[in-house]
Amino acid sequence: MKICHLGGICFFLTFLMILGCNSDKTVNEQAGVPVVAKQIAKISIDKEISVSGNIEGRKTVKLGFLVAGKVNYIAANEGEPLAAGQLLAGLDPENYKIAKEMADANLDQVQDEYNRLSIMHERKSVADGDFSKISSALKLAGAQQRLHNKNLSDTKLYSPLKGVLLKKGTEVGEIVGAGLPLFIVADISVVKVNAAVPEADLQQMKIGSDAAVYISPINSTFSGKVVEIGSVAEPTTRSFDVKIEVKNPRLIIRPGMTAEIKVMSGRKTDIIAVPVEAVLRELDNTAYVFIADKTRNQAFKRKISLGRMAGNNIEITSGVVPNEWVVTGGQHKLNNGSSIMLK
């Protein structure tokens, strides 16, 4: 009997504890989730100009042979570095060597004849007309020798600058003609971003202005400076060419990449912004915030569109308006329509 009596007491005490916990939970739910909220307002920031552009080397050259022939040597593959003055490619020089030897022999022969007639001319044994002919023949033979020397030298192609081989348009064994652009070499230690700026924004662009250059293929942002501003508009788009220079010491930025450029205009503009910590994201990366309704003591989920960062704040381009209250603390505990208690 005593055992049953003690068991009943224990059960009764347990029941009271559970009832007390549920009662506390109900009170908390009714009181609402404690949150911190901040009134949304406009802030003044530097206005920026955003445009897209393409990367090119600081200096880009197209190279080809000045003489025709069969390619017998190529020093580098596309993407490989080249030193200034490095041998890039060569042609089979045999025909040009033979032509040079013939020109050398002809010059020697004409030189001997000139020397002989020169002595006779001094003795008045050769007419002036005949000596003039041999003098002209000597000049012609010398010019032919220099030409063949140059042709032989032109069977070798050297890189005129330190850079990277961007394009190789031939292979060993191929017959190529004179003057064909076969190789493209670019100096990319510093690159330029070509962008088209609308005429409405042109007056806000200045030489030397700082620019932030985001290059999506390598997911990196670089600092640059505006170095050129076009003076003539493109007829169809009414935009002006602007070039931004970016240092590229690791050579990871390559010509042809696309870039997003933001240039500070030096003028102020007002934006709607909220603290960064107020912004939450769905599984699909959709951004949202909780707006506090102080009259109903509830928080409501609001999808938003984001703009640029401004210090510890982030611009909201749509979804909220000034003077609303955004939840900046405790929002992770909320659901749409949750009761709240402002701290």
Q: How does this structure look, described?
A:
- The chain is of the alpha+beta class.
- It folds into 4 domains: 31-45 and 271-342, conserved putative lor/sdh protein from methanococcus maripaludis s2 fold, CATH 2.40.420.20; 49-57 and 187-267, Elongation Factor Tu (Ef-tu), domain 3 (Beta Barrel); 65-92 and 155-180, OB fold (Dihydrolipoamide Acetyltransferase, E2P), CATH 2.40.50.100; 93-154, Orthogonal Bundle (Helix Hairpins), CATH 1.10.287.
- It contains 4 helices and 20 strands.
- The strands form 3 sheets. It has a 6-stranded antiparallel β-barrel with strand order 2-9-12-11-10-13.
- Strand 17 and strand 18 (313-318) form a beta hairpin.
- It is rod-shaped and about 130 Å long.
- The chain starts with a helix and ends with a strand.
Please give the alpha-carbon distance between the first and last residues: 54 Å
Query: What's the total helix number?
Result: 4
Rg is 40 Å
What is the CATH architecture annotation of the largest domain? Beta Barrel
- Give start-end ranges of low-pLDDT stretches: 1-29
CATH topology of the largest domain: Elongation Factor Tu (Ef-tu), domain 3
